[in-house]
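re: that chain from earlier
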Amino acid sequence: MTDTNANASGSAISVVLVGGGRMGALIASTMEAQGGFDIMGVYDENNIDELDAAAPAADLAVDFSNKAALPHVCAYVRRSGCALVSGTTGYTADEIGELRALGDASAVIHSANYSLGVAVLRRLAAQAARALADFDIEIVETHHNQKADAPSGTANILLSAVDPAGEKSVTYGREGMVGARPAREIGMHSLRGGTVAGTHDVHFFGPDEEVCLTHRATSRQIFVNGAVACARRIAGAKPGFYTFDELMFGEG
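^ sequence. v structure.
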């Protein structure tokens, strides 16, 4: 794969943006500021149907919208053959499977979080879970009061990191006489309020000690920077379904 500011012809990377919200606006302004991109259109709930047949073919689609747009995004990628950077969260396993299937003919990346710091947190959490195998694990995520899905996609990434085989039960909050905490349980808690861009804590509780790993985002720009960096790389990549680590670090 390549890491350039242009497509194979040497011109700017043509882009369609799916999602006209705050993330979409930040991605557009960042691409325009950095250069090397040509934004051909923005599609949201007001004109999403146009993706199916009317939208111009671009080198790349960038989707930070709502899961309801997935059929339109998939139709556009299949029609145009473009690469796809997807940051939409809340997908089911079957919907992730639809994105994976696009990788048979196009270069596709889906990540719930495009922050370099979160990528490091995931690795540290996985290492801690192996070293502290008998400790109790609790994951706490905090976001602004407009976030629609819970738990966050990043929290689910961290859950997979500490329990890759899915062997433990997950409790989403607790209420009432729940009794003693089972040993093989992971607690997942979602806080919502204000304008918090995103905070994630992974707690490991052992006898007489606690380890807590934290990532705190102070603005959405960190996610935008990672998404735009991925956009440059995937525009020149071979077909396939890529992870953030594969695309950014050359490893799984």
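The domain at 116-217 is CATH 3.30.360.10 (Dihydrodipicolinate Reductase; domain 2).
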